[in-house]
Each structure stands twice: as structure tokens, then as C-alpha cells.
């Protein structure tokens, strides 16, 4: 039994690709094709059983879908950044409580408030940098995994992952800055501790 007999595809087409000559506008050709297909099928305007799309229209549809995906990803990233910032802040508060006596000792031997502030801000920035580095590694691994699966399943390189070093440096810098901003309040609290009270802390 032939394939067209099995699936009923004889003289039937689901898609027709048309190559446009350089001197022909795709939109004009699309309108011409619509008129001819309506005449051939005896269909009225607005009641067509077919669709004629140009590459520009397809690209516009794809861009619309990508815009929605980007919006969702931005929302997820914003929530992740907020949670990460709160996590760093809580970590810094815990760290300060555990080292209150150390802060008191440093102040008692002459450490300035600005120096204490700098120490804890630097620590918060390190936390942010480590979080950003973990995110970059996970993102790279997941995207490369998706690329590998696409090649293995479809046998085509439809998804090729490329990373710009500038983008990676920017992401790490941003995560470090986020860590520093999240650590400002805990660091100020540490810098404002009174030496005597800090040494008495149990």
C-alpha cells in the first residue's frame, strides 16, 4: 500500500513554499496568491480555508511569542533577585550576631566604623559574586544540555548557544553589586555597635 493511499494525501498539500524574486515585494505577492486561491477554491474574502503568510509576518509572530517569554523570564528573574537579596541580608545579620564580640575587639583596638563597614560590605559582595557565579554555571549547563538534546532529537543545530564574555562579566558584576546593596543595612548595624556592648554580647 502506498503512503498516499494510507494517509489520504494524494494531491493534497498542507504547506506550499514560494520563493520570491528579488524585484517582487512579498506583501504584493501574498495578495496575488490570495486572490488566485480564492478564485480557484471559489471562496469569499474572510471565508478562506487557507492562510498566506510572508516571512515578515512569521517573524512578527515569533517576536511576539519571544516578547511574552522575555516578560515572563524578567518577572521570574526579578523575584529571584529579590529573594537572593533578602537571603544575603539575612546571612549578613546572622554573621554579625555571631561575630559581635569580634567587632567589639576590633573597635577596642582602634578599628574605625568605616573599616568595619567596608569589611562587611566586602563580605556581602563576595556572597553576591558567588551566587552570580553559581547562576552562570547552572545557566550555561542547562542551555548546553538543551542544545545537546535538540541536536540528538532533531538531528539539526536549530539551537546554538553562544555566550558573550562581556555578558558574563556584567552578570557577575551585577550580582556583586546586588550583594553589596543587600549588605548595607547589616554592615551599618555592625559599624554602629558600641565596643563595650559588643564585648558584653553573649
In terms of DSSP E residues, the strand content is under 5%
Q: What is the molecular shape?
A: rod-shaped
Number of strands: 0
Low-confidence stretches: 1-7
Structural class from helices and strands? Answer: mainly alpha
Mean pLDDT: 80
Structural descriptors:
202 residues, mainly alpha, 8 helices, rod-shaped
Give the SSE map.
Layout (H helix, E strand, L loop, with lengths): L2 H5 L18 H16 L13 H44 L1 H9 L4 H42 L10 H18 L1 H8 L3 H6 L2
Helix pairs in contact: 3-5, 3-6, 3-7, 5-6, 5-7
Question: Can you describe this structure?
Answer:
- This protein has 202 residues and is mainly alpha-helical.
- It is built from 8 helices and no strands.
- Helix 3 packs antiparallel against helix 5 and helix 3 packs parallel to helix 6.
- The longest helix has 44 residues.
- It is rod-shaped.
- The N terminus is likely disordered.
Summarize, please.
With 202 residues, this protein is an all-alpha fold.
